[in-house]
Design brief:
Helices cover 41% and strands 15% of the residues. By secondary structure, the protein is an alpha/beta fold. Strand 3, helix 4 and strand 4 form a beta-alpha-beta unit. Helix 3 runs parallel beside helix 4, helix 6 packs across helix 7 and helix 11 runs antiparallel to helix 12.
Length: 316
Amino acid sequence: MNRICDLFKIKYPVIQGGMVWCAGWKLASAVSNAGGLGLLGTGSMHPETLEEHVIKTKAATVKPFGVNIPLFYPEQERIMDIIVKHKVPVVFTSAGSPKKWTTWLKDRGISVAHVVSSSFFAKKCEDAGVDAIVAEGFEAGGHNGREETTTLSLIPSVRKATNLPLMAAGGIGSGEAMLAALALGADGVQIGSAFAVTEESSAHPEFKKLVTSLGEGGTKLALKQLAPVRLIKNAFFEQVDAAEKAGKSPEELMALLGRRRAKKGMFEGDMEEGELEIGQVSAQLNEILPVSVVMDNLITAYHAALKETESGKYQF
């Protein structure tokens, strides 16, 4: 039995990233119904909004699902109370210390995974008692690690540092990439971008359309003085890039960022002045498809690639 499947009680070791403005109840329930683990993204939800999405997710699927919580966001206590109240079985935490909530959640029967960008923090997760780790490489969309370590380099390092169930994230959008991640030592994968442009994603249609038109180099890591984030190169990105090259202070960058930039772009559809977060794998995403098709394509390609390795094709 695959350790990720066993831990989360799912069919495939495929986790949907809890992306801001994309990961609502329609996406989470669709991924869970397709055999993976859907996650609600609290980074773009007030507690009352999260509760609404939890209730709708439970009505749309009988399969396990979870909630992703960036730990630097406010109202953590209310969010945790909602998770316990509605018996959400899985929580993924990120952007903060795993020690803060892990024991509290596990004492209430909830499985906990934490997202890291280095083997050093993976060991911290093990010390904190998490059930599983997501190791996210530099290729990923949205908020990223300062180390700028690629997934190809990160997964073996994290695997060496801990024996906990491990999910690879960053640059994974195909069955072939999934097989490669498992070959490097991961037990499963977390996929964001490929699910962000599905029919069930709550992102704006113009955002999905733009993502599927991107080529190689269409995204770049920005805002490194604040919290590194991978963005699509649009007018807002150019403003940020120019400000960083001019040596603007963190306070000046915060003023430029302002409030609601991600919502303005990803949810409301302003493709020029909005903050547009997506991963490097977007260059491989050419269609807006239902989650069921994305999952079927992923698993089919995985098994085809696995069969090729067993056929001796790669022997030398």
